[in-house]
Amino acid sequence: MGRILFYLLLGIAAYVVYRWWRASQRVENGRAGTTAKESSEPMVRCDTCGVNLPQSEALAGGGRWYCSEDHRRRAGGG
Asked: Count of CB atoms within 10 A of residue 52's CB?
């Protein structure tokens, strides 16, 4: 009877440690996801072809956004 109780308590302890470890992994993954969301930048749409791209890669002209110099020239935006 004592041996059964020992293994039962050992199993419960292992389960508790496993759950604690998994919870700490989720917290760390959640923090990493937050930093990725904070570093995202606004997307803009090319006025000529409609392609969406990050604002840092887009070209501005005439108050509008373009994906390439060719599209900006076609629209007469600069």
From this structure: 11
65: left (phi over 0), alpha (psi -120 to 50) or beta: beta
Both tokens of residue 20? 């604690």
Q: How many CB atoms lie within 10 A of CB 60?
A: 13
Task: Look at residue 19 in the predicted model and tell me its pLDDT.
Answer: 96
pLDDT recorded at residue 39: 65
Task: Enumerate residues 6+ apart whose C-beta is below 8 A from 52.
Answer: 43, 44, 45, 46
For the chain, residues with pLDDT lower than 70 are 31-39, 77-78
